[in-house]
Amino acid sequence: MFNSALIDISQEINDGIFDRYNPIVEEVYDTYFSIMEMSIDGWMLNDPSDKGFMECFRDIFPPGYMTRDMSQAKSVIYDLMDVAAGFTVRYELKPIYIYVMHKLIQRWSDVIKDNHGHIPERLQIYLKEKNVSKRSEEYHRIRRWFTAENNIAEDFADTYDEDCIDEDFAETMAFMYLENELAEFKHKYLGISITDYMDLLPTDLYERVKKKYESEQEQQKDKHEVDLSREIISACIMLSDNPTQYRTMEENDINRILRDYLQSSLKHYHYSVLDQTQRGYSETGKHAGEIDLRIDKDGLPVAICECLIHRNKESLHEHVHKAVKNYNQSGCKNIYIICYSQNKDFKTSWDEVEKWTEDCDDVTGWDEDETPEFGGVRHAIGQFDYQGIEGRITYIGVNIGMMT
């Protein structure tokens, strides 16, 4: 589900606890879900063809985006529907998602306002039960969200990166990148990557930026090859740095965010990151298995990532076995087991893993990193044998638990 200032208010009223079924959260969920439902119905019920999609969303996407990649444009819409329908709050979104969703909110603002016009009755009852005064700041902000014109669009822009809804900002960044010798310094100083904003550019600028960027990446590629383990650990550190976002998430939701981090860092080196890829065999051997993440280079697999929530020895051994034996029929030599620890005590979790890996039949020779750079992300390296060929397996423990 999409984030909102109202979700913060719901936690303030609810003693700091996030409750998915809190009436305030429910109203936010229903509003955004309705926006996506109306958007997709408006396309599918009128004309489900590509031409119909173009007509329906012509004014929603940045100029030239749909003509550059129609299939990707459809993926954006379906992905936004998945976010709206999900039970996990998405605190971060890609710039193109922010841009498109903001446009959709604006499109349906009149319908939303007609449906609202006042605080919903169930919400009024809830606020009364919680003794929220009608004169309080919380009540005023909630009332404004439901009654004020364009307030939902403004809330969305404030919650996410409002620069992503400004076409002029993206074009300014592009011109800086193309024409200013100090652009690289300025972009790093501002915390901006030109790749974040390429999707928002009109086609002429997009092509110029893409050409220069790819040329720079080729030059960079010639200087050094990517350290894949380092990039994966770096992505895990980004997860560990935001435990409040991820400590209650389901595994698949965390995997998708990890995938996005890896895609962002590895695309510069022409790697692709696939999730839920059907490869090898399931546990029963009757169907294809689903790899959590697979990293390809030039169409060939270079790493398999199997992810899990830290629970017990049996779960760890099962995931290792699936990665080494079931999903790796091609014999990929690099396997990563990424374990998310949502426990309060990460050290205890890591100590348990050390014991569990000692009798893991599919792996030999675990060697823990004796001098870890980061206390919240630890790793150990082992070897596995596949048809007489030795491979490397890296276990990464990621602390996304609560503070002790």
Could you describe the largest sheet, including whether it forms a barrel? 7 strands, mixed
Within the largest sheet, what's the order of strands?
A: 1-2-3-4-7-6-5
Residue-averaged pLDDT, rounded? 83
E-strand count: 7
Poorly predicted regions are 278-288
Q: For the terminal residues, how far apart are their CA atoms?
A: 28 Å
Share of helical residues: 40-55%
Q: Write down the secondary-structure element order.
A: HHHHHHHHHHHHHHHHHEEEHEHEEE
Approximate shape? globular
Count of DSSP H/I helices: 19
Integer-rounded radius of gyration: 24 Å
Question: What portion of residues belong to β-strands?
Answer: 15-25%
Q: How many structural domains?
A: 3
Which structural class best describes the helix and strand composition?
alpha/beta
Keywords:
404 residues; 3 domains; 7-stranded mixed sheet; alpha/beta
Note the topology.
Blueprint: H1 5-13, H2 23-44, H3 50-57, H4 65-68, H5 70-85, H6 95-107, H7 109-115, H8 121-129, H9 137-147, H10 151-159, H11 167-179, H12 183-190, H13 194-197, H14 203-223, H15 228-240, H16 243-246, H17 251-266, E1 271-279, E2 289-297, E3 300-309, H18 313-326, E4 334-341, H19 346-358, E5 364-368, E6 377-386, E7 389-399
Parallel strand pairs: 3-4, 4-7
Antiparallel strand pairs: 1-2, 2-3, 5-6, 6-7
Helix pairs in contact: 2-3, 2-5, 6-10, 11-14, 15-17
